[in-house]
Every structure is written in structure tokens, then in C-alpha cells.
Amino acid sequence: MGVDGGNRDVINKLAQEIAAGKHGSYDSLLIAHKGKLLFESYYARGRVDLPHFQASTTKAYTNLAIGRAIQMGYLTMADLNKPLIGFLNNLDSTRFVEGANKITLHKAMTMRSGMRISEEQREELNQNPDQLAGQGQVQAYLERSAPISEDSQSFLYQGRDPQLVMQVLDAVVPGTAKDFIKTELLDKVGIADHGWRTDVSGLPSGPSGARMTSRDMIKWGMLARNKGKWNGEQLIPERFIARSTNSIVRIGNDDIFFTGNNVSNPGYGYYWWQAEMKVGDRIYFTRSAQGGGGQYIILIDALDLMVVTTGHERDDKTMQITADRILPAFINQTAKSRADLAMTEATELRGPYLGQIPPGSTPKVFAPGIVSTEHRDFSPFFSPDMKEFYFTRKNLGSDKWSLISYRSENNRWRESVIRPRVWRPNISPDGKTMHLGKYYMERTDDGWSEIKSLGPMFDREDLGIMRLSASASGTYVLDDYKGDNVIRISTLQDGKREEPRALGKEINTGRLNAHPFIAPDDSYLIWDGERDEGVGGIDLWISFKQQDGSWGEAINMGPEINTEAREASAYVTPDGKYLFFNRTVSPDEGDIFWVDAQVIENLRPK
């Protein structure tokens, strides 16, 4: 403490108060800063070498085991949105309640399986535990639950959901879930002295029951802090860490016990909690694994700070104590500037392209956990001066779309939600107009105007525009989902707008053509289309304008860009350096990717 960060006197005073029982029944308090353990103190039942009971923090460890299975190829990110029962072979689905196939890993890991089992049914199951052995547990749950529907798949904190997840882990990995967790996670990060309760099913308990030393809890936190890496090895996909530890479900401030004066805006990911902590006029985003009784792993990314506690106090105030006592010890006038510089991407972004490291010839997710999140993120574009970045997001909790903006001021990017999304937004090459299908907004001194109609030529019942893209010459290209899913073009002739007409068969072939992007100089057109000769179902295609003004044959953008998923909504940055697009693997999962725009030149006919 002190030299390496933090106010020694403030933390020591807190530790003395804990030892005196002034804050409830704590067993340990550990603080790590910038990857280094700075403070460690034990009380009551706590010992440095004694594994402590873990209540719901066990859920967070179960989540990381699923991430490890994804990294090793036993599951994929796309599998998170598939019916959970599809991974379990020893079930009789004919006896399930209606809607059982709506349960996915994504739903179960966000406590939204939708299972509702009455107290009487629970008591009956407890009296006949033999029927819960193995996958019989899932069979019993899905026979007795009330029908599973969109209404029932709301947030309900219950132990059955993580037990379903443990069942899937046991089914997909070689051997058993117990051996997999030990060999591929615990042994990998050096956790030797531990315990893990066996559930009535015979599997490790998913909701609670692990035993870990406080120092080993630090290791779990480090794995999340380091985006899934341990000693240079990627144990868990970075993308999975970003999704699981960030908010997917929003929780009301009054709906959870740990909020208070300086702790608010709670959320829930894949068995990880989120909240904001306020210190003075500053807000700090936190991610935490939490267990009843006082087991916490709290990450405060902006300060590169981790707080770990254990305890046996049901009415603990750990989150409030962290906000009120621990964070201030790491924040003062000189430390503030250092903290600013140490801000992580999750809270503060600096430099071009939101501070992201540019890709090469292989597409990669853009700003994982920030722009590309657990929600459905779509339609990215920069302003011509590259100081504004826009995209749309469908929040999976509210099922609502928003248009989101990041703006760079003093080389620092800040986020704001502009308004509900209107179709697929795009910006004109001069940055003065934001096109919104058949509507648009104009740039004003303080932002954007109200939404306006493009007029009767476009705003009509028989024309279904999702996305309209404009070139510097004023050419519009637009899709038409009401007109056989074709791409249309409208040019300016002597300053007069022409009626939009369908492009030829070079472009409009196949079952679907949508979301066009025209180069600012009119030299090429990119769109997503569904053709028999494609790589996947819906691919990105490009056509180059010929010397005679016609459009060349459509060229598939190749297997580096196109996959078995759906690629859509291509866009090239104003500096011409990067191609952005969407890759969607399910209705609830879509990320923004970017790749070096040299891919376009490589396809251009010589």
C-alpha cells in the first residue's frame, strides 16, 4: 500500500473496524491494484490457507467453465443461443411442458430460463431425489415447470438455471464436468486447495457450493481482468469474457439488495453482476461475482482495482463499503490523473477508431464489450471527420432498438444514446445528412434536426426502404423489401432527382438483396444477398462500376468475409482504410466486425 497505490491509513482504519465487528461478519478482505496484491487481512473464520465456502460466486465459476469449453471447441458462441435441450441426449422431449425448447444457455445464464416450479413440486422432488440423478434432473424440471413463454422468461434468480448449464457442460466435454473443471480451469490457474459440492444430480453444483481460498478468488478475478488470459494463454475467449461480465439484463435499483446512496444502476450478465459506484462527481463501472454471506470479487476497471471479500453475514454491505471507503483510498487529486490514464477500454476510449487496434486481412470484432456486446449491434458508421461514430443496438432486455453515438473530444470518446432507431441509419459523404430509410435528419449547430421525410418519391406505401446510401455525387442506392427484395438506384440529372429504379440482374439476382453501400466516388457497390452460389446463407457481394457506367457482375467477397452466419450492412470508413460489416448468428446475436479495406482492391478486376 502507499507506494504501489492506495491510502494505507484509510485501508488500515477500515480493516480495524472490520476486525472490531463494526461492519458485520467478515472473514477476509483483499485488495489488488494493477495486478498486484496490495492488502490482505483475515478475521473470524478466515485463514490464508483455508478454502472458504462460496455461495453464488460458484455461478461465476460455472460461467467461466462454459467459456473454457468454448475456447477448446466443445461449444461455440453461436451455441449459446441454441435450445439447451439439444445438447442433452438422454431426455424424452415428448413429456416436456410447452416452450421447453425456448431455453438456451444465454437465457439460463442470465436467469431467464422461464422455468417456474411450485413449492409443492419442489417438495415432491426433494422427497424423491433418485429421479434427479443425471439428466433426469432436467427431465423432472421440464415436466413439472409451468409452460415456458416470453412472459415467463423474465429475470428470476434461482438455482435451477445454473444447474441446467452444468448439465450442458457435462454433456459436451470429454469425461465429466468435474474432471474438466479441475483439469482445464483449476489446474491451469494454479488452484490446488479447493472443494466443490456434488449436486443431487451427481454433477458439480452449478449455483453454489464451491470452496476457494481468498487468494484463489483473486485468481478468478485476474482471469476476468485479463480478458480470459492466464500467463499468456487464452483460456477463455475475450469475446465471451466481455459478454458474460457486462450487463445483459437491467435490474431496478429497488430490486436488488446491494444498491445504496453511491451504488446504483445494477445489471446482470452471465452470472456476473454490474453496478456503478459514485465517488464525488465521478462514476465507476464495476463487475462482480457475488455470493450470499459476503463472498465478492469486485473489479473496478477504471482504477485497475480488485476487491475480494469473504464473510458469513447475510445482510452484508460490501458494495457500499467498497464505494464509500475503498475507492476513495485510491482516488485523490494526483491519483485522479493517473487513473484517467489507466482507464480501460470498458470505461474510457482514446485515439482513432475508438482506441481499437486496427485489423489486418482477417476480420475481427470491433470494440468487443464496448460496441460489440451481448446485445445485437448493427449499422456502424463514422462521420467524415472521424470524430463521431454511430451504430444501432437492440437491447435484449427491453427488445428495443436505439441509435447510439460516440464522440471524440480532446482525443477521448464519450457515449450517448441519441434516439430510438429509425431503420438502418447512414451518413452522407459530406456529413450534413443522416439518412434513415425514407427519412433523414440534417446536421445542426447542436446535433441533428428532427426526423424529416424524403418526400413522396420515397415516402410511399409501395416502397420498403431499410437502408439508403448516398455518394458524393448525390446518387442514392436503396433496398426495397416491399418490391421483391431488390436494390434500387436514384441519380441526380441536371440537379433533378430521378425516380428510384431497380438495378439489373448483375445486382438483383437471388432471393434477397438488401442494405446497400455505394462508394463516395460511385466506383463500387456492396450489399448483402442470398444466392445459391454463396458461402453461407446471406453473404456480402460487391460490384464495380465499368467504364461505360454499367455495373459489373457481382463478386462474392470470399470466405474471409463470408461465413455460414449472416453477413450484412457493409460500410467503408471515410478514410477508405477499413470495411465494417455485421455478422449475425442468431436473431439475438449480432456483432460488428472490421477488416482492412484492401480486401476491396484485391477483388477489383484488373
Task: Describe, in short, the structure shown.
The protein is 20% helix and 31% strand. It is α+β, with helices and mostly antiparallel strands.
Throw out a few tags for this protein.
single chain; alpha+beta; 8-stranded antiparallel beta sheet; 5-stranded antiparallel beta sheet; 12 helices; 31% strand
Model description:
Helix content is 20%, strand content 31%. The chain is an alpha+beta fold. The protein has an eight-stranded antiparallel beta sheet. Strands 14-19-18-17-16 form a five-stranded antiparallel beta sheet, with no helix packed on it. Helix 2 runs parallel beside helix 6 (160-172). It starts with 7 loop residues before the first helix and ends with a helix.
Oligomer state equals single chain
Query: How many E-type strands?
Result: 37
Percent of residues in β-strands: 25-35%
Helix fraction by DSSP (H/I, runs of at least 4): 10-25%
Strand order in the sheet with the most strands? 2-1-13-12-11-10-9-8
Mean pLDDT: 90
**How many alpha or pi helices?**
12
Gyration radius (Cα, Å) is 27 Å
Shape verdict: globular
